[in-house]
Specification:
By secondary structure, the protein is α/β, with parallel strands linked by helices. The protein is about 40% helix and about 10% strand. It has 21 helices and ten strands. The strands form three sheets. Strands 2, 3, 4, 5, 6 and 7 form a six-stranded mixed sheet that branches. It has a two-stranded antiparallel ribbon with strand order 1-10.
Length: about 600
Amino acid sequence: MRSAAKSTVRATFAVFALVAAVSATPARAEKRLALVVGNNAYESVPRLEKAVNDAKAVSSSLQSLGFQVQLATDLNRRDFIRQLSAFMDKVSPGDLALIYYAGHGIEVRGVNYILPIDIPPVKQGQESLLTGEAVQTEKLITDLQERGARASVFVLDACRDNPFKTGTTRSLGGARGLAQGTPPEGVFVLYSAGVGQAALDRMSDRDADPNSVFTRVFLKEVQKKENTLVAIAKSTQVAVRDLSLTVSHTQVPAYYDQIIGQLYLASDGAAPAKSAQEAPVASNKPARPPVVANLPPQPSQPKPSQPTARAVFNNRAFNDYLKRQPQMVRADLANPNAVANCDRLASYGSDVPDSRAPRVRRDDIRVKEAVPACVAAILQEPGTPRLRAQLARALLDAPAKRDKVAGLDMLLDLAKDGYPAAMWRIGICYYGGELLKENKRAAAFWFRQAADKGLGAAMSDLAYLHERGEGVEKDGVEAARWFERAAAGGHPGGMRNYALVLDQGEAVPRNPKQSAEYLLTAFRMGSPDARESLFRKHASWRADTRAQVQELLREFGFQVGRTDGEFDGNTFTALEALRASNPINAGRVE
């Protein structure tokens, strides 16, 4: 079954990038636009069978939801750029824009690219040739953002088997999978499979469905017009996971939610009435964010010369802090490096998907430098919640209690805005009794809020609470489920933890191969715990899991010698070579 499943694997990677925007002009009827592309007929890499079918099916589905669809298939690079340009020209501020792509994709040093059908054959060392001929996925998201759309949706359905893999020498790109791209603020991201996972093209050789496993599920879920995009993501996640497990394959779609309010893809979608959710500490519960539904039809307005502004965030606590610290307003606002300095001095690192720098340990935060740097950065970019979260992080380590309280107040504002990293950090305050009375149940509540919005660090911490029975019922199976979601969502610590769960086989069936894949991917992403497990504590892992690590290193083209699970100098050399030449930086600036 394993070999059959491997032969039918086609990775499907889906990204929904939704960027909320507001306008000072009267509301007008939005356009709902979609560009749908499917590529099968590759000239120099393996041809595909279902990409065009998937694109046509998605096109029909989107039309039924009220989208104006621009469908194109088997595009070379020049035609691809022309289609993109024509589509971007149609998008106006206040519109809902969607791009769907099905075809080959590849990750090179942590950056994802999609491939036109005339991509030339390239080998290891020819990365510049590939990146010059391919299309970087992050640029597509950026281009849609710059058009000022009310919401932008980006769906990428790309093959996860490396089309340039040789099998005998070091191939260009990763052995499998795309890297989890770092979404900008105000973005919802859904992947059809987690980091290091391959998505199934079909269930078996007898599977006659014309669509990939992820797409067939998504097409059903997206037609449930009463569901928000978050609900669609969750139901798709469960259905795909359950389907893949029936053929002994692990595929868990991962998603991130950094959107204020809710979005309905259907043109007649409406927010159903829901009862209020009980919170363990009602006074600190974030207010339910406003629903982002369809704008009502209005008389057409002249197009503004500039894109509309991004969503307005609640800066009350930050403004109150500046009133008490007026000297902070004199921060070097003209410093072009203000944002970069804030990131460098107070970044959460890979714990938060939208971080832009390596993690700064709390013990290493230089408060006197980090606070003014982040204040200047926020004054330059008041609509960037990451910067306020980093200022709050620095203030929580300030010596004065008043500053600590200001930091917590900023986190509460961010939580009301729907920013998951703030919810997670509030949970940490409750867990450790930092400024707030220790309350494990409240910690679990806040971790769950952030976990439901796709934050891997919160999922991993929630799993830890279930494992220990702190604030929630002790439940090893539930802990394993949250570790799995954290891993699929691209959180390095969650990957290492779920790798251990799969190695031990107590809460879930043992799976040495999946365990090795997660462990190596966490190592490629720079996880210190994964490195410790591979270099110093490898003897505590099962022999068959260690052997799978060596087999994967051979597949990457680095392992020489034994693959019996006994780590030696060759294995450690191969690990170092893998990390040096094929890292996944998770969107951070190293």
